[in-house]
Every structure is written in structure tokens, then in C-alpha cells.
């Protein structure tokens, strides 16, 4: 009952790298690959294949969990009644590590660095999955202890003496800190010349606005992303000026939950490097409806549907006090759309691309790189379609970013360090983004 | 690094056995710091990755095992893991090295050695592994101990009885109180794996050990936490208080950032709630479970999908969970289709009088979308909503009529199908819309829609003036129709005849159809039904009328409820494959052991009433397998739909039409997919619950050791 292997498929569905399925018949990985490719081929459009595909042939009864990255498919095969969430967490983590190592994960980078991928995969599945596929560690921090980073490998290869730093981590002190350390997420004996910890408060608004312009649902989900480079065993206490704006919090295992329940302070010994300290949902101030956070923009759409096409006039108005960036509005014109023209009132971009058979292409994109806090932007245009009664999407997808802003105005009050004596650099940044579906 | 990358690409070349052998031999001389060997081994490993068979190099590669360089050792071990099992005649050559490495100074090498050995299920190796493994289970280094724990599971897989005789299971049990949390977690994982085998020892926890494990929870990695939380299902509380205490200790884990931990925590809580007596605590836990489930929906689509399938099960058993959160399941246009369909089903389940308006508005929105599948399900959900929430029925009918006016064929067809059920649910209330439906008769080309329309025509033939004309038109193509439509036509024509037996037209019509059904059709169902009608009508038309027009059992949403006992059982698999497919794993996963609630004084009465027992001593103590071609299907009852269709009674046949299928049921399997409108009343103590037959029991021998 566990993850029994990993396969990476190129965009054409051919395997690039796969685990050696030693305890399985040779056809086992092939069955998975075939089942996945069949499902993908059958899919009418992208993203319509169930992420967990059950395979009952050849009495192997297993399933493959797959995600798509850079055109490739990363497939984790699981046998028995395993938890698919573990497989997805495993894939996410694996991909994250590859991204850390190579920057971009693509067919080319994987092929060029196959030995590193294989090492990562090998160690990763050995150390994290262990021999029968039980994940044990997927925290990248703990992994870096066991898996050599590319720089260490190159050092190893270049070095004449086996006593390089890389090798010594495998030396007589053996498994290293990760398993002997009293704190499972932190290795023992970390030293930095410069101690710092950075927090990024990232809030993401997700909402749906109905036809009448009223917000149906809008929620803000926040994350406190942290990057710690601290020596020793730092015991930190983070307090907020307004902790009551957070609800439904979920924490990294390092956070002492009782302390949070008692005095709304985050007390923790952080892992090394990047980690997500907490997830929360924004609780709007008293009186406001939950799940109804005000939208930072408004859209007025005048749609006129005719035969073989239609015209539209979109007016986008910012209601945010901050500048919005990289605003993008997408409008799917329907599979029979053939062309679109539009005129703009202010400096921004609108593109529409057409490519038959590709759902994502018959889409009008309107981009506003920098949207000041007041004023309106107008886009007028028309589109044509092959069929008499065109069926465009009945919703616009809007994405935006608001730098140095948070919906909740969550404010860090203090960060105290105990158990260590050094001074550390502390930093907090805010960032917000949103994705809204606006129906018409 | 760049030159390195260039070289690496070259390693991907096939058919190099001889070359590699020569290189390895050459490397034996003047190999400064083993660089040459390392390079060759790397190429060999690269070829293994590619799936190229490198086993002919076995003899050459194992020569390198003694090299005092960890990197080379690792690669040789990797090679052995790949090909060791296929070389039973040569494997003895490696054993001395294995044994030496098992007592190496470096814990990493010790662990590597036992791990590799456990991968090679060849008697010589297993024999040699035995003693080493016993030592390693007590190694002073936690890394070796945790590796050894997992190796026991491997050894057990190879030969369960032998592993038991050697006392490995007891050694593992002792590791449950190890000081290192990772070791504890691995021991739990290994024991769980053993306990999940059909032929494995039964792994149960007592209160003391369960409490100890909970104590280790805080220090474990997230995966360790998952194993520990999952193992709580192997603890059977004897008193309400024990279950309550445990639930209170577990509930903080809902605040974990890892979605798998959250879902496993929910599984443990759902399990413990069966043994909790305090209703207020149950309500409290239900309230606490909602928000983390909603939070899972802010993750990627894959995690959302897993979460949604589980939520669907959870809200059927505990309807108060997420009771007020229907908005969280509103679909977005660019959600993947599998997420949309799952959300739609949950919206339907969460719909009540209070939120029916919002839900209906959403469903109408979806019915105007582009995706055909989704639109169909949305239209169907509108009809199901009308059946489920009576006060909303008027609005739903209005909206269905509006949809029928769009004349989009697939929308019209779906609307007709659900309207049929609405007629049955609210007899005498909405028949006024029949003329509207008749206008669209020509648009119906799918069997299900056509059959539904034919049913309406037959059932209300007395109220439709030109029913005979309409049916006459439809009967025109009788012989070309699919069986589903033919059956519907046959019954409808008979009904028409009973209503209007004086009319010559109907007489001719029924005669024609009965003759076709009995003489020109090969389908036995249709033929038998034809004969039966014919004889009834010939012998005693009055009785025939009574039978054919008998009052139909009312449609309720009860029919799409999942059996409570089966639900209780499925929820023990929360988060796993079984919960995604809504089937018990032992029915579709080889070697999976079933799970069932276990009776104890603390188990609440209603769960006990529907208790599904796995062990059935009165039955033959072996797996019954049927020989013959094709895979043996797991034990399953015949599906209700089929059963009904084989019974030649018109009334029953019609009631089978009302079966609603799980919208998301991939396999189209009614057995598991019976879905529920209301869910089970949360009160574990209200109303008797009938014990239903256990559809999933698989009868297996279980060997109990210790």
C-alpha cells in the first residue's frame, strides 16, 4: 500500500525516466503509461483527465497519480489502498526539488542532468519512500542532507580526495542530522555567518461575481512563507498586532499549537531554508459577511450577441487604493470563434490567438501591466464565429497582483529570539494576488 | 557543470554491454581514486534507468562491491536491487560482502546493506539477512533501526510464516516504544503493511500503546504522523471516555498544513466518533472538520479532486459537516471537468430549503455553459433538486421549462429525463407541462430521453388527447429502437390500450407491438414481457389494468442514499483510493484486507445495528474462486438495476427506471454508487436503521498470530 515508482513522460507520452520496477512484471510500468496515454488521448480538452487513474489489468490493481509540468507528465504509481494525497505531495516535492536544482524543469534539462535526476529520484525514493514505498521525508530541508545537490556532486567528481565536504556528509557520522536530530524538521548543528529570517505574507483572493455584479463568493487565503537562515536551535516567537484577522489557521509542524490557542502567538523552532509557516483564511471585520470580501475592481460588460459573432464593450474600474499589476482578463470565445478585433482606450495590450482544436487558444486576452488606483479602462471589440449562434464562455477570468498590500492588513508585531544569543536580520513583506470569475 | 551535462547525454546509448565490460576490466589497473570505475558504473546505471538490460554485467559489476568508496557501493547496490533476483545462481558471491557491510562502522552502509538484501527474495540471501536484521532492529543508530523496520515488512511479504517464526513481528512491536519518533513511525508503517495483508497477523493497538503513539505524534515528521494517525483505527475504544479523550488529543492535528495529515486526522475522528457518546462533542468535532476541508479546496486541482470525493462520502454520513458551506463548492468556469462534476454532486447533497435558491441559480448558470457533459449533469441536478427539496420544486420546473425552450438538443433531452421523475415525485401537480414536452418529441434521439418521454406518454395517456397518434408515430421505428426504448414503448402502448380500450386505433397499435415483441424480437426480456402482457390482456383485462396501472411507489431521495453500514465501512478508508472510487479496496485491489468497525461496549447503537462483519466463520474458510477465462471478479451482488430488469413485472420495471446513478460514478456501478440526498441523520440515536446486506464482504481466511 504505497507509492511503488515514478515515471516521467515526455510531451509525446514516451517515458524519459522511470524507476526500476524490480518486484513487478515488466509490463507493469508500461500498463500505467499506456493507460495514462489512452486517457489523455481520449480527453476532449486539456485538464479533463481524472488525476487518479485506476488500472485493474494484469491483476496488478494499482493506480497512477499524475501531474503535468512543462509539457511533461510526472506519474507516481501506487499500489494497494494508498493515499493519493501522499502521491501528489510526493510529486510536488520532487518537482520542487528539480526546480531548485535546474531552474526550469523541461525535457532538455532532465535529459542533460539525468544522473542528478536519477540520484534525486533514487535517493529520494530510497530515503523518502524507503524500500516499500512509504514516504518518510519530503521536507526539502531534510532531504538536502541526504541527496547531494548538483554543486556537491560536481565537487565530488572534481575532487581527488574523498574527504570533500560533500563526501563527508556521507562519512562516518553517517546519516547526518536529519534522523539523529531531536527535531525532525531541523538538522542539528547549522551555522551561518549571517543570520536572517524573512517572511512573505502572500494573500490570494478567489471569487465569483454573478451576472448582476453582486459578489457570490469571495475568500482570501493567506500564507506566511518563510525563509530562515539561522544558526543553532533558534526558538522564535512571532506575534501579530491583529491576529484576529486570521481564521482556520493551519501550521507547519514546527509551530506549537497550544501556544497559539492560548495567546495567539506563533512559537516555533524553524526548519532551515524555505518553508510555509502558516496558512490562514482572512476573517473580514465584524459585521461583514464571511466569504464576501469586497472586490478590488469592478467590471462592466456590455455584450451583444449576434449571428456569427458578437460585440463587446468592457469597462474595468479599479477600486483598490494600491496600484494593481499584471492584470489579465481572459475571455473564451467558444470553439467556433474565428477572429476578434478590439480597440483600446489606454495603453495596455489585448491579444487574441486562434488555433483550432486547442481550447486555451480561442481566448481573448487583455493585459494591463500597471493599473492605477482610480480610473477606468475600456476595451471595445467584436468577434466572429463559424456558427450562427456562437457559444462563448459566460464568464471572464480576471487575474491581478497587488504588491505591498494585503487584504487582511495582517501586521507583524514582534519577532523574539530566545535560546540563541546572536542578532538576526528580520524582514516582512506583503503581496496579494487574486483570481476572479466575473459572469455576464 | 556544463561539460558534465554534455557528457551525461552520451550515456544514453544502447547496446554497450561488451564495451562496459572491457572498460570495467581496464579500470582495474591504475584507477586513481576509482574515478574510472565510477564513470563506467555511472554509465551502467544510466542504462538501467533507460530500461536497458544490464544483467549480463552481473559478474563484472559485483567485483566492485568491495571498493571503499560510498558512491561506488551505492551504484553496485543499485545494480543488485535491479538484477539480484534474476541471478539466483550467482548471488552467493555477494553474500560475504553483504555480511561485511552489515557490520560496517558507517550506519549508512549498514542500512544500505540490509535494505538491498531485503530486496532480493532468494533463499540464500533471506537466510543470511535473518540474523543481521535482528541486530539492525536493535542498532544504536536510529537511521539503521528505521530502515530495518521497513525491511521486516519486506521480509514478511516474501514469507509471512517464516518471518513470524523468527520473531520479527514481536521485535517490530517492541519498536513502537522506541525513543526516536521516526523509528516509531516506521515500525507503525511496517506493522500496518503487515496487518493490511489478507494473510497477515492482525495488528491491533491497546489503549496504552495508542496513547504512547499519540505522544510521539508531536515529534514525528508529517509522514510519520500519517502512519500514527492511521494506526488509531486499529484501536477499538472500550469506553466512550477513551474515544473522547483520544479525539480531543487528535483534533489539533486538523491545523496541520499538510493535506494528507488533515485528511488522515479526519479519518481518525470519523472513526472515533462511532465510539463517542457525548453528542455535544460529536457536534463540536463536526464543526471543526468543515473549515480544513474547505481549505483543501484552495490547493491544486489534483488535491481538490481527492478532497471532493472524500467530502462527498463524509457529508453523507455526517451532514452537519459543511452544512452552511455550499458556496465553497460553486464551480468556476475554468475548473477542470472532474473538479466541476465532483463539486456539482456535493452542491446537490448540501442543498436544503434554506439554500435552494442560491443552488438553483448556480445550476442554471452551469446549464448555459459550453461543456456538454457538465451541462447535462447540471440540468439533471436541477431535476434532482426539485425531487429533493419540495419547496424549491416550482422554481426548478420553471427553470427546466426555460431550458427546454432553448431547443439545445442535449439540454432538452436531459430535462425530459428528469421531468419524468418529477412527475412521479409530485403526482398530479405538474402534468400541465406535458404539452410543452410533446412539442420536443422530434428532438429526442437518445434512448434514455426517448424512453422517458414514452413513459410519460403512456402513463398519462388518459390526459393527453393525441397520445395514440404520438405513440403510433413513435412505434413506427419500433424494430430499430434500442431495447430500452422498445421496452418503454411496449409498456406505454399497453397502458394506452388499457386507458382507451374502445378505440380501434389503440387496439391495432397494441396488437402490432405485441406481435413484434413476441415474434420479431430476439431479446428475451422484451419477448417475455410481450408474452406476459398479451396473456394478461387476453385472460383478464381488468386485472391487467390493475397490475399495469398499479400505484407506483413514490420517488424519494432515499433511493440514492448509500447504505449506512457500507458508508461506515468506506469512511474507514478516507483519503485512500477506496474513498475516491467509493468502493471498498478489497473489492478492487489485490491483497487488500477489508476494514470494518469492530463492536465494543462503546460503539453506538446505530452503528452496531448496521455493523458489517468481515470474519464469517460459518462460511467456507477459503477464497472461493471460479476457474475459467478472465480475471475473477471480487464478490459482488448482482446490481439492482439488472435484477429488476430481469423480473417480468411491469411495475417493478418502471420503478427500476427511477434508479438514480451517482453522477460521478466512473464505473457506472450502482452497487457502490447509490447516493444519498439527505445523508444519514446525524443523530446516532434517532430512528432504527435497517441492517442491509453487506455487498462487499469478501470472505477470506485470516491467520491470527500472537
TrEMBL record, chain A:
Keyword DNA repair: no
Keywords, comma-separated and alphabetical: Membrane, Protein transport, Transport
GO cellular component: a single term: clathrin adaptor complex
InterPro entries, alphabetized: Adaptor_comp_med_subunit, AP2_Mu_C_sf, Clathrin_mu, Clathrin_mu_CS, Longin-like_dom_sf, MHD
Residues annotated as transmembrane: none
Domain MHD: from-to ranges: 194-440
Gene Ontology biological process: intracellular protein transport; vesicle-mediated transport
Pfam families: Adap_comp_sub
Keyword Cell division set for record: no
Record's subcellular location: Endomembrane system
Chief place of localization: membrane
Family recorded in the similarity comment: Belongs to the adaptor complexes medium subunit family.
Name of the protein described by the UniProt record: Clathrin adaptor mu subunit
Lineage, opening ranks: Eukaryota, Fungi, Dikarya, Basidiomycota, Agaricomycotina
UniProtKB/TrEMBL annotation, chain B:
GO biological process: intracellular protein transport; vesicle-mediated transport
Sorted UniProt keywords: Membrane, Protein transport, Transport
SUPFAM superfamilies: ARM repeat (SSF48371)
Keyword Flavoprotein appears in the UniProt entry: no
Single annotated GO MF: clathrin binding
Broad class of the protein's primary localization: membrane
A cellular component term, taken from the record's GO annotations: endomembrane system
Family: Belongs to the adaptor complexes large subunit family.
Function according to Swiss-Prot or TrEMBL: Adaptins are components of the adaptor complexes which link clathrin to receptors in coated vesicles. Clathrin-associated protein complexes are believed to interact with the cytoplasmic tails of membrane proteins, leading to their selection and concentration.
Protein name per UniProt: AP complex subunit beta
Amino acid at each position: 500500500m504505497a507509492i511503488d515508482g515514478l515515471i516521467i513522460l515526455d510531451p509525446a507520452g514516451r517515458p524519459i525516466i522511470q524507476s526500476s520496477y524490480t518486484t513487478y512484471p515488466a509490463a507493469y510500468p508500461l500498463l500505467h503509461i499506456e493507460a495514462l496515454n489512452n486517457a489523455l488521448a481520449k480527453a476532449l480538452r486539456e485538464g479533463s483527465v481524472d488525476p487518479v487513474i485506476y488500472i485493474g489489468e494484469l491483476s496488478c490493481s494499482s493506480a497512477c497519480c499524475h501531474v503535468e509540468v512543462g509539457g511533461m507528465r510526472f506519474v507516481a504509481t501506487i499500489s494497494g489502498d494508498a493515499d493519493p494525497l501522499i502521491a501528489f505531495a510526493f510529486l510536488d516535492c520532487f518537482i520542487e526539488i528539480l526546480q531548485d536544482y535546474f531552474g526550469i524543469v523541461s525535457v532538455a534539462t532532465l535529459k542533460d542532468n539525468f544522473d542528478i535526476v536519477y540520484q534525486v529520484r533514487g535517493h529520494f525514493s530510497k530515503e523518502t519512500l524507503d524500500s516499500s514505498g512509504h514516504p518518510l521525508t519530503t521536507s526539502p530541508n531534510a532531504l538536502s542532507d541526504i541527496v547531494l545537490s548538483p554543486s556537491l556532486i560536481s565537487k565530488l567528481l572534481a575532487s581527488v580526495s574523498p574527504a570533500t565536504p560533500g563526501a563527508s556528509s556521507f562519512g562516518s557520522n553517517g546519516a547526518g542530522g536529519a534522523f539523529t536530530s531531536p527535531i525532525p524538521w531541523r538538522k542539528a548543528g547549522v551555522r551561518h555567518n549571517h543570520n536572517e529570517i524573512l517572511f512573505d505574507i502572500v494573500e490570494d483572493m478567489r471569487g465569483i461575481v454573478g451576472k448582476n455584479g453582486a459578489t457570490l463568493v469571495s475568500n482570501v487565503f493567506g500564507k506566511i512563507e518563510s525563509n530562515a537562515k539561522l544558526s543553532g536551535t533558534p526558538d522564535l516567537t512571532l506575534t501579530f498586532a491583529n491576529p484576529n484577522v486570521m481564521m482556520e489557521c493551519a501550521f507547519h509542524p514546527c509551530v506549537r499549537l497550544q501556544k497559539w490557542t492560548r495567546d495567539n502567538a506563533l512559537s516555533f523552532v524553524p526548519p532551515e531554508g524555505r518553508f510555509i509557516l502558516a496558512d490562514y483564511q482572512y476573517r473580514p471585520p465584524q459585521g461583514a459577511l464571511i466569504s464576501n470580501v469586497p472586490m478590488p475592481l469592478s467590471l462592466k460588460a456590455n455584450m451583444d450577441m449576434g449571428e456569427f459573432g458578437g460585440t463587446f464593450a468592457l469597462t474595468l474600474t479599479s477600486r483598490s487604493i494600491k496600484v494593481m499589476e499584471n492584470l489579465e482578463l481572459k475571455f473564451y470565445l467558444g470553439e467556433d470563434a474565428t477572429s476578434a478585433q478590439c480597440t483600446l482606450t489606454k495603453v495596455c495590450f489585448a491579444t487574441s490567438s486562434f488555433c483550432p482544436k486547442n481550447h486555451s487558444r480561442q481566448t481573448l486576452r487583455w493585459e494591463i501591466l500597471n493599473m492605477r488606483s482610480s480610473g477606468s479602462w475600456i476595451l471595445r471589440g467584436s468577434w466572429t464565429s463559424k456558427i450562427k449562434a456562437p457559444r462563448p464562455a459566460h464568464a471572464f477570468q480576471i487575474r491581478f497582483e497587488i504588491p505591498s498590500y494585503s487584504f487582511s492588513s495582517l501586521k507583524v508585531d514582534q519577532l523574539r529570539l530566545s535560546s540563541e544569543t546572536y542578532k538576526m536580520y528580520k524582514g516582512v513583506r506583503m503581496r496579494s494576488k487574486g483570481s476572479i470569475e466575473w459572469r455576464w | 557543470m556544463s561539460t558534465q551535462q554534455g557528457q551525461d547525454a552520451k550515456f544514453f546509448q544502447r547496446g554497450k554491454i561488451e564495451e562496459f565490460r572491457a572498460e570495467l576490466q581496464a579500470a582495474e589497473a591504475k584507477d586513481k581514486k576509482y574515478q574510472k570505475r565510477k564513470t563506467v558504473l555511472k554509465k551502467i546505471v544510466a542504462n538501467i534507468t533507460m530500461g536497458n538490460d544490464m544483467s549480463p554485467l552481473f559478474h563484472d559489476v559485483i567485483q566492485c562491491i568491495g571498493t571503499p568508496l560510498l558512491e561506488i557501493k551505492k551504484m553496485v547496490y543499485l545494480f543488485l536491487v535491479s538484477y539480484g533476483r534474476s541471478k539466483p545462481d550467482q548471488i552467493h558471491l555477494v553474500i560475504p560482502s553483504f555480511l561485511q557491510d552489515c557490520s560496517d562502522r558507517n550506519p549508512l552502509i549498514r542500512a544500505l546493506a540490509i535494505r538491498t538484501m531485503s530486496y532480493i527474495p532468494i533463499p540464500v540471501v533471506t537466510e543470511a539477512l535473518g540474523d543481521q536484521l535482528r541486530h539492525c532492529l536493535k542498532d544504536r543508530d536510529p537511521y539503521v533501526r528505521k530502515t530495518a523496520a521497513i525491511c521486516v515488512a519486506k521480509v514478511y511479504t516474501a514469507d509471512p510464516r517464516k518471518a513470524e517464526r523468527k520473531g520479527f513481528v514481536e521485535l517490530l512491536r517492541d519498536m513502537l516504544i522506541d525513543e526516536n519518533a521516526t523509528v516509531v513511525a516506521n515500525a507503525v508503517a511496517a506493522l500496518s503493511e503487515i496487518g493490511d495483508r489478507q494473510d497477515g497477523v492482525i495488528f491491533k493497538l491497546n489503549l496504552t500503546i495508542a496513547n504512547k503513539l499519540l505522544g510521539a505524534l508531536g515529534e514525528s515528521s508529517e509522514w510519520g504522523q500519517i502512519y500514527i494517525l492511521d494506526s488509531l483505527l486499529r484501536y477499538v475504544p472500550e469506553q466512550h471516555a477513551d474515544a473522547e479523550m483520544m479525539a480531543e488529543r487528535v483534533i489539533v492535528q486538523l491545523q496541520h498544513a499538510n493535506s494528507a495529515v488533515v485528511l488522515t486526522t479526519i479519518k481518525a475522528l470519523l472513526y472515533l466518533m462511532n465510539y463517542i457518546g457525548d453528542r455535544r462533542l460529536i457536534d463540536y468535532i463536526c464543526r471543526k472538520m468543515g473549515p480544513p476541508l474547505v481549505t483543501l479546496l484552495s490547493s491544486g486541482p489534483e488535491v481538490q479532486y481527492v478532497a471532493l470525493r472524500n467530502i462527498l462520502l463524509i457529508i453523507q454520513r455526517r451532514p452537519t459537516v459543511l452544512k452552511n458551506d455550499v458556496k465553497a463548492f460553486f464551480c468556476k468556469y475554468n475548473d477542470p471537468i472532474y473538479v466541476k462534476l465532483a463539486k456539482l454532486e456535493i452542491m446537490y447533497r448540501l442543498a436544503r430549503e434554506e439554500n435552494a435558491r442560491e443552488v438553483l441559480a448556480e445550476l442554471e448558470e452551469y446549464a448555459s455553459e459550453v461543456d456538454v457533459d457538465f451541462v447535462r449533469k447540471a440540468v439533471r441536478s436541477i431535476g434532482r433538486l426539485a425531487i429533493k427539496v419540495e419547496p424549491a420544486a416550482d422554481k426548478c420546473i420553471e427553470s427546466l421549462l426555460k431550458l427546454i425552450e432553448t431547443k439545445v438538443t442535449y439540454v432538452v433531452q436531459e430535462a425530459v429525463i428528469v421531468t419524468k421523475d418529477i412527475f412521479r415525485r409530485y403526482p398530479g401537480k405538474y402534468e400541465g407541462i406535458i404539452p410543452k414536452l410533446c412539442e420536443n418529441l422530434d428532438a429526442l434521439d437518445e434512448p434514455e430521453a426517448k424512453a422517458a418521454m414514452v413513459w410519460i406518454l403512456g402513463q398519462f395517456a388518459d390526459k393527453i388527447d393525441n397520445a395514440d397518434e404520438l405513440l403510433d408515430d413513435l412505434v413506427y421505428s419500433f424494430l430499430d429502437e434500442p431495447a430500452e426504448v422498445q421496452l418503454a414503448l411496449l409498456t406505454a402502448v399497453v397502458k394506452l390500450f388499457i386507458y382507451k380500450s374502445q378505440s380501434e386505433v389503440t387496439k391495432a397499435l397494441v396488437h402490432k407491438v405485441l406481435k413484434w415483441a413476441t415474434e420479431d424480437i430476439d431479446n428475451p426480456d422484451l419477448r417475455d414481457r410481450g408474452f406476459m402482457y398479451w396473456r394478461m390482456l387476453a385472460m383478464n383485462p381488468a386485472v391487467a389494468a390493475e397490475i399495469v396501472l398499479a400505484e407506483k411507489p413514490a420517488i424519494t431521495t432515499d433511493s440514492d442514499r448509500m447504505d449506512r453500514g457500507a458508508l461506515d465501512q468506506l469512511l474507514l478508508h478516507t483519503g485512500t483510493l477506496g474513498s475516491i472510487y467509493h468502493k471498498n479496496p478489497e473489492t478492487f485491489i489485490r491483497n487488500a484486507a477489508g476494514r470494518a468497525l469492530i463492536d465494543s461496549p462503546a460503539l453506538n447503537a446505530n452503528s452496531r445495528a448496521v455493523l458489517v462483519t468481515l470474519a464469517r466463520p460459518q462460511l467456507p474458510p477459503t477464497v472461493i474462486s471460479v476457474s475459467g477465462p478472465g480475471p475473477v471478479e471480487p464478490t459482488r451482488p448482482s446490481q439492482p438495476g439488472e435484477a429488476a430488469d430481469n423480473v417480468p413485472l411491469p411495475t417493478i420495471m418502471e420503478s427500476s427506471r427511477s434508479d438514480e446513478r451517482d453522477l460521478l460514478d466512473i464505473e457506472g456501478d450502482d452497487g457502490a454508487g447509490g447516493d444519498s440526498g439527505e445523508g444519514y441523520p446525524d443523530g446516532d440515536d434517532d430512528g432504527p436503521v435497517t441492517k442491509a446486506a453487506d455487498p462487499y464482504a469478501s470472505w477470506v481466511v485470516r491467520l491470527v498470530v500472537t
